[in-house]
Write a structure and sequence with these properties.
- The protein is built from two helices and three strands.
- The chain is of the alpha+beta class.
- The chain has one domain.
- It starts with 7 loop residues before the first helix and ends with a strand.
């Protein structure tokens, strides 16, 4: 399986999208984490004992 990396340009575009929706994410119990050259990861519905219910990785802006 080939590893997928994003360019710095794609990373900057993804960061803009994540920042634009930051306030909405807080209201919906969603977190977007910067995974460096691998892209961004959306984590949703955190439970203290079980962790995150949903995680999606985005590698294309």
């Amino acid at each position: 399986m080939a590893e997928i990396y994003i360019t710095e340009e794609q990373r900057a575009k993804c960061r803009k999208v994540a920042d634009a929706f930051a306030e909405l994410y807080e209201l919906a119990d969603v977190m977007v984490a910067d995974a460096g050259r691998f892209g961004f990861v959306r984590l949703q519905w955190f439970s203290e004992g079980e962790g995150f219910d949903s995680a999606m990785a985005f590698s294309d802006s």
